[in-house]
Amino acid sequence: MASILRSPQALQLTLALIKPDAVAHPLILEAVHQQILSNKFLIVRMRELLWRKEDCQRFYREHEDSVVSASREIAAFFPDFSEQRWYEEEEPHLRCGPVCYSPEGGVHYVAGTGDLGPA
């Protein structure tokens, strides 16, 4: 199903972390996923990982609510993701649509490209 987002404003990147207690229950995880989609967020990257308690503590200790912090955190979770390249190449297409959601890949992609999202 394709949707068209015609927005004059640039999209913003947001990092969403789903805690282990939600991931442990498939129905809760699906409800969280559906809530993200129903609020018209586009999922442009998705990754599952398992952290040790120390990793979680370090992450939350360093976390600030700022653009700089968000960029640093996105880079930590997605080391091969270039925020600048995303804003230059992907964001304009996703903003102007049409876009599709791939349940298999768990991400949104530009409709008509045949691409099921980033590799």
From TrEMBL:
Question: What cofactors does this protein use?
Answer: Mg(2+)
User: Which N-terminal stretch is annotated as signal sequence?
Assistant: none
Q: Which Pfam families match?
A: NDK
InterPro entries linked? NDK-like_dom, NDK-like_dom_sf, NDPk6
Q: Which residues form a coiled coil?
A: none
What are the protein's UniProt keywords?
A: ATP-binding, Kinase, Magnesium, Metal-binding, Nucleotide metabolism, Nucleotide-binding, Transferase
Q: Which GO terms describe its cellular component?
A: mitochondrion
Database matches in SMART domains: NDK
Q: Which GO terms describe its molecular function?
A: ATP binding; metal ion binding; nucleoside diphosphate kinase activity
Q: Which GO terms describe its biological process?
A: negative regulation of cell growth; negative regulation of mitotic nuclear division; nucleotide metabolic process
* Ranges of residues in domain Nucleoside diphosphate kinase-like: 11-85
Record keyword Nucleotide-binding present: yes
Keyword NADP in the entry? The reply is: no
Q: Which family does it belong to?
A: Belongs to the NDK family.
Put simply, this protein is called NME/NM23 nucleoside diphosphate kinase 6
Taxonomic source organism: Piliocolobus tephrosceles
